[in-house]
Amino acid sequence: MNTTFPRAKRSALGYDVAQVEAFLELARNAYDTDASGLLGLSSSDIRQASFTMRKGGYSCHHADSALERLELAFARRERDTAIVTSGTPAWLEANIARREVLLARFERPTRHRFRRVGILTRGYATSDVDKFVNSVSAALGEGLPFPVEQVRSAVFRSRLGGYHETQVDLVLDGLVDVLLALGTD
Fold first, then answer.
1. Which of 185, 177, 99 lies closest to 147 in space, CA to CA?
2. How far apart are CA 119 and CA 141, in angstroms?
3. Tens digit of each residue's pLDDT (9 = 90 or more) over 147-180
4. Residues linked to residue 158 through DSSP beta bridges, in sequence order
5. Which of these, 95, 114, 89, lies nearest to 166 by C-alpha position?
6. C-beta separation of 139 from 184 below 8 A
């Protein structure tokens, strides 16, 4: 019986135990055998991992918390490897440039920061996304840290004619990469 994480109640949904265990084994092997961090899994791969929901599966909250810690460990290793490979100035310059690209998008006029879906299609509420982006932009623009957890836990209402969800999600995923790379974790 696997006891890596607490289980959801038998009648409640949780992550498929076999899938989580297989992914964790893959992550352990990648981390242990690939000290360079250049092969195998990346922090982004861990962040994007998804599992089938099953009754009585692993508690999503507990598994997600562990995956976030694992992602952070991989991100730190990726950062250390990149600094050794390219040097601190080049690495810092590249990540500051990535941050500036994000800030340029975030500084676009409200309601025009992302592509919109059709008027009869649901997307993220522009007001929710714009409010979140304003808080990120204010912190990053002043050189203040912005908690990765706030990006991960951002929730936006669904609205007709809203922002294109996939595009917003990809930009926020890039934001997490930048925050982890710059060590604002």
1. 185
2. 33
3. 999 999 999 999 999 999 999 999 999 999 999 9
4. 124
5. 114
6. no
